[in-house]
Predict the 3D structure of the following.
Amino acid sequence: MKYIYTVFLLVTIVACKSNLEEIKPTLVTEKTPHDTDDPAIWINKKNPEESIIFGTDKDEVNGGVYAFDLDGKIILEKSLTKVSYPNNVDVEYGFVLNDSTTTDILVFTEREKHQIRVYSIPDMKPLDKGGFQVFEDENNVEMKRPMGVSIYKNPENGNISAIVSRKSGPSDGYLYQYAFVSDSLGVHSNLIRKFGKFSGEKEIEAIVVDDALGFVYYSDESVGIRKYHASPKKGNAEISIFGGEHFKRDIEGIAIATYQGDRGFLIVSDQQDHSFNFFSRSTNSFVKKLNLGTLETDGCDVTTEALGSKYPNGLFVSMNDEQDFFFHALDSLKIAK
């Protein structure tokens, strides 16, 4: 009976896929053991062909953040396992340690331990003494469970902070922002602000930061995409909410394809339509919808930088609800700069 139900469910999902012409992936990664959710692209500046795609795999006991090479193969020695429900992941470049050396970092939410984790890349060493607790001032356990995370590097001073969302939260102050600082005692995480409105419907998971333009966007899943200033110094007032009318139901993962100046696109998963909506980076106006073949996409990431001969003009990565991730050469999306 369970087999029949599973087949019925898969047939139903396929039948409900977007009727847009499908753009086939360049490749599909190896499968993870449990439940994929969110990817992040780390660019190896010295050798782009050795760049790594990190992807979360959710499980309360044996979850992981898996590292993939550009052929979609799992790199076991760079993967983190036995993680308690890793949800979303992001990367940043040039975090300054106490001795003035710098390292790239990987940050992910560990939902069941109510914390975020910080690792150096590419050596994959923990910098957080086991994790930084988040939403500590909340009494409700549900409001302590982190989901989304995105990193902001202030282009003016190089300071790095993480913006974190959660499974449940209030109508205002849903997101917390934590600054990462390093001193002789190690790396620390300091709460610097609470901000962000919530409709009260569904939840907030997906977050993305446009470092260069100084904005943070997040998906209030049932109503629209909310936009704020990424720097606390510019205040907590909402700039806009947009795009909700272009989604079938859940508004999910967000990625930003950045080109020179303010050109580029916000790419947002329309989860139940199994498609992606594109919005102008400069005006946030709707541009187009694409079907990239994925099912029930949660998270996605994109880079417009060249990653060797296979992805000379960039790469788009999206989670697929079959324990894997899809890689699309950015050329195949046919988005004009």
About this structure: The domain at 84-242 is CATH 2.120.10.30 (Neuraminidase). The chain has one helix and 24 strands.
